[in-house]
Amino acid sequence: MKGRDIISIRDLKKEEIELVFSVADSMVDIALGKKESNALEHKILATLFFEPSTRTKMSFESAMLRLGGRCIGFSDIGATSVAKGENLHDTVRVVESYSDAMVIRHPKEGAARYAAEISEKPVINAGDGSGEHPTQTLLDLYTMKKAMGGIAGKNVLLVGDLKYGRTVHSLARALSLFGAGIFLISPRELEMPEEVKKEINIEAEGERIEDHIREADVIYVTRIQKERFPDPAEYAKLSGRYRIDSKLLEMAKKECIVMHPLPRVEEIAYDVDSTEHAWYFREAFNGIPVRMALLSLIMGVVE
Ligand code: NCD
Question: How confident is the prediction for the chain on average, in pLDDT?
Answer without folding.
Answer: 96
